[in-house]
Write a structure and sequence with these properties.
Order of helices and strands: HHHHEHHEHHHHHHEHEH
Strand order of the largest sheet: 1-4
Distance between the termini: 19 Å
CATH superfamily: NCX, central ion-binding region
Number of helices: 14
CATH topology: A middle domain of Talin 1
CATH architecture: Up-down Bundle
Radius of gyration: 19 Å
Largest sheet: 2 strands, antiparallel
Number of domains: 1
């Protein structure tokens, strides 16, 4: 048991560092090749922050562990809003742009709603089983394409966000970082899935709970570090955009790719977790509207964290 816990922690560390190395190496090469800062931010950086979730889900999909795969995503998205933005707002109140209130936050709520509709075949269509099929995966990836299109249209506003991420390095160093990142992601993802599954079996806890809590928190570490540092430096655009972009990528890209690899059986108990993900984004929208000057202040940040703690207690108690 203790060995599995140690391997889980090692896997999380490898996953976080692997994603960071991959982003740094790829961003440097893209910059050297003359790719615009915006495109680097949109593709490499946005993709990189969702790499931990993607790797864990691919490993889980291959092994047919849908509970861990779906739990990881909805858990990460809930943590991103309630914990990552909550802690960021506690560090420094976060101002939310009008365009974010109009587009990104509603789109993240929409992503949770689409996942709910696609996953609930029994509830919606009266089917015998609920499953995220390969067709559902195509639908999810199509909505990701729409988000890409919108982001490109608003590229003028996004360029300054991406520039801070790009640091040019020597080509050899960049290639080495990419290689190390890929290796770190692969080994970290494998360790997490194997050890988390083993811990769940030893403790008699469903894989979905491990995915919703330990694995989800671990794969959200890149967003937490990025947003907390951004909030400390007073760059609210990065703090909020990082979380919302990651949440949209997690559902449309990560679950889309995962279900294309292997259809993911869906269990009705996960509906509460999907609804919680949508509620977290809705709460963000309400606070952004209601708060003075369209911002999330420290009191609201503390409430975010408190809501997550209450939800976590509910999740643990409901499966005892």
């Amino acid at each position: 048991m203790m060995l599995d816990v140690v391997l889980l922690v090692v896997g999380l560390v490898l996953l976080v560092y692997g994603a960071n190395w991959l982003v740094e190496g790829a961003s440097s090469i893209a910059s050297k090749l003359g790719v615009s800062a915006f495109v680097v931010g949109l593709t490499v950086v946005a993709f990189g922050t969702s790499m931990p979730e993607l790797v864990v889900n691919i490993m889980s999909s291959i092994k047919g562990n849908s509970g861990l795969a779906i739990g990881n995503i909805v858990g990460s998205n809930t943590i991103n809003v309630l914990v990552v933005l909550g802690i960021s707002a506690l560090i420094r109140p976060i101002k939310v742009k009008s365009s974010t209130i109009r587009i990104e936050i509603p789109y993240s709520i929409f992503a949770a709603a689409i996942l709910f509709l696609l996953a609930n075949d029994v509830l919606i269509d009266g089917a015998s089983v609920s499953i995220l099929s390969r067709i559902d995966g195509v639908v999810l990836l199509s909505f990701l394409g729409i988000f890409f299109y919108y982001t490109f249209l608003s590229s003028k506003d996004a360029k300054h966000i991406a520039k801070g991420y790009v640091k040019e390095r020597k080509m050899k160093i960049s290639l080495l970082l990419i290689f190390a990142g890929i290796v770190g992601l692969y080994l970290g993802g494998k360790l997490i899935v194997d050890s988390a599954t083993q811990i769940a079996q030893l403790m008699g806890v469903p894989d979905s709970i491990i995915g919703l809590t330990i694995v989800a928190l671990g794969t959200s570490l890149p967003e937490l570090v990025t947003s907390a540092v951004a909030a400390y430096k007073g760059n609210a655009d990065i703090a909020v955009g990082n979380v919302l972009g990651s949440n949209i990528f997690n559902i449309f890209m990560v679950l889309g790719i995962s279900s294309l690899i292997k259809p993911l059986p869906f269990y009705p108990q996960a509906n509460i977790d999907i609804l919680m993900t949508g509620f977290a984004s809705l709460l963000l929208l309400v606070f952004a509207f209601a708060g003075p000057g369209q911002r999330i202040d420290r009191k609201e940040g503390g409430l975010f964290v408190a809501v997550y703690v209450g939800y976590l207690v509910y999740v643990i108690m409901s499966h005892n």
